[in-house]
Amino acid sequence: MAETPKRPRKTKAATKPKPAAAQKTSAAKKTAPRKAAAKKPAPKPAAAKAAPKPTPGAQQDWTAMSAPDLETLDHISRNLMQASLNSQKLMSDVMRQALAGDPMMPQTEQANNAPEFGAVWTEILTHPEKLMDAQAGLMRGYLDLWSSTTRKVVAGEAEEVVTPDPGDKRWRSEDWSKHPLFDAIKQSYLLNQNFLMGLVKNVDGVDPVAKRKVEFLTKQMVDAMAPTNFALTNPDVLRETLQTKGENLSKGLANLTRDLERGGGRLALSQTDLEGFKIGTDIATTPGKVVFRNELIELIQYEPTTETVKKRPLLIAPPWINKYYILDMRQKNSMVRWLTQQGFTVFLISWVNPDPSLKDKTFGDYIETGLFSALDAIEEATGETSVNAVGYCIGGTMLASALALLAAKGEEGRIASATFFAAQTDFELAGDLLLFVDDAWMAEIERLMDAQGGVLDGRTMSDTFNMLRSNDLVWSFVVSNYLLGRQPQAFDLLFWNADQTRMPKALHLWYLDTMYRKNRLSKGEVEIGGHTLDLGKVTVPIYMQASREDHIAPFPSVYRGAQKFGGPVNFMLAGSGHIAGVINHPEAKKYQHWVNTDLPDTVKAWLESAEEHPGSWWENWRDWLYERSGKDVPARTPGDGKLKPLCDAPGTYVLVKS
């Protein structure tokens, strides 16, 4: 343990007489600091600058430091020493595992993007006039920034040369705008960001896919280099370090160590308190029973909350890439609970979290053993031969495929209407996820699946989606957890986001290749069970929801898919993104939605004539469902029909962790 340094005794050499001129100079240097010390424990900055530089090996004079200052320095020194020792051990452990060549760790070969970068930058360099214009603009920006910073130092305020996007949360601290130094750092970064992104964005004459890939990876690089991500250039981290005497750095390193250990040497970034919720107790609490189970699904029938219900049941097929309880989070935002309150008999599929024994299950298996088995079970439970069906995200893609399969088999009546939440059936404009399906990435995904026994672990999927919004879902937590040393708070949405499921090899590789790479469903080229799937032959009424800020299923992509069906389609656009745009309880009174009963050729034309309404779209959808749900009948309780309850909701499959 370090001890507080003792004040050095004066030696005879320190009081040895000097020549008169030297005494006068020495007195001038020593008197001011002594007077200042009498008024204030710490020496003035001016005196510190005037003092001669210490010679190597000379003992530091601590006489001017107060006891609290020495104590603070001691605390900081100890915390930095502890952080240094822990970091050495941490790096040693990580390097040892990396050198061991763990086959289940992602490799970097698939990120070799030299051909794309080379093509883009070659094109940039072949147009020197554009490059010179961009550089001249950057130089003008820096000259303006220098002038603006000078005015801010002298006058206290000045107009900013460049401002961040309104939704960019990295610059929320007041220091980024009020403190001249940090304001200059912020604006300097933004100038460079706009310069680099502008060069790539404005390049012409290259393959659009290569350009999009370079844009995405350039943004990842630029985001990673933001001054907010480094301790010495983040005012919040500097303030926290002084206030906690360096404990934030020590705690942050402990958090980093914990996340690496949890990930087995691979960083498993904590976004929330993983012990903050219990499924079935805090979330997924709507009363219901599991009334059917097979190797792929548990079917939940929810308890009614009204005396009568609509005759036609409602079946929800969530994505199997996540747990279903995004639709049944907590009482205040549960869509499932709200639907029971509107008088629907609600059934929901809870997908299995597959292990290697299910690695050969196919997309067709998920339709037949999953969705169609649920339809059979609902008929046994209620006697109804037709349902209104809902598909969310990848579950919606499956539902669209199932509708086409039923149409090909002459059984389209089993689903009377279909609702799609943020679901794509045309992947031409599928957004940044298209960047993760090139040959190199596909080979790496297959390698990882083979190393894991034929399934893809949930962390790989989570990391991919987090990269699409790296500032919000990666870097903000790096700063909070590792630099500020804070513990993640309990947040239901992020708890769900961290509860990823595994993917079976046969299904996942087929889906990425067939849908994302080749867009075969929209082209009518998918074949299942000897039947070719043609969306144009699907004539049931369709309600298609999209979200304006969705980065996973972009609304222009969803709109293209809406035009593929052969029957009436009601396209509706909600505010916010892939999750909040869907899960928006009417009582929250948040966001807005746009409606337009027409379906013109382009989404731009649809938007121009759409009518905006405040708040949630759920009530608009409910009214649409009412028209297709039949008369009112006495409420159905799980177990009333031929199917008897197997267990209480939320069931057992949802509890299996990856």
Question: What secondary-structure arrangement, pairings included, does this model have?
Answer:
Blueprint: H1 20-39, H2 45-50, H3 67-100, H4 114-125, H5 128-155, H6 175-178, H7 180-201, H8 208-224, H9 235-244, H10 247-262, E1 288-293, E2 297-302, E3 308-310, E4 314-317, H11 335-341, E5 346-351, H12 363-382, E6 387-392, H13 394-409, E7 415-421, H14 439-451, E8 455-456, H15 458-467, H16 470-483, H17 492-498, E9 503-504, H18 505-517, E10 527-528, E11 531-532, E12 542-547, H19 555-562, E13 569-574, E14 592-595, H20 603-608, E15 611-614, H21 618-626, E16 632-634, E17 647-648
Helix pairs in contact: 3-10, 4-8, 5-7, 7-8, 10-16, 12-13
Task: Walk me through this protein's architecture.
With 658 residues, the chain is an alpha/beta fold. It is 44% helix and 11% strand. The chain contains 21 helices and 17 strands. It has an eleven-stranded mixed beta sheet, sandwiched between helices. β10 (527-528) and β11 (531-532) form a beta hairpin. α12 crosses α13 (394-409). The two termini are 43 Å apart. Residues 1-62 are annotated as: Disordered. This is Class I poly(R)-hydroxyalkanoic acid synthase. Pfam families: PhaC_N. Keywords: Acyltransferase, Cytoplasm, Transferase. It is found in: Cytoplasm.
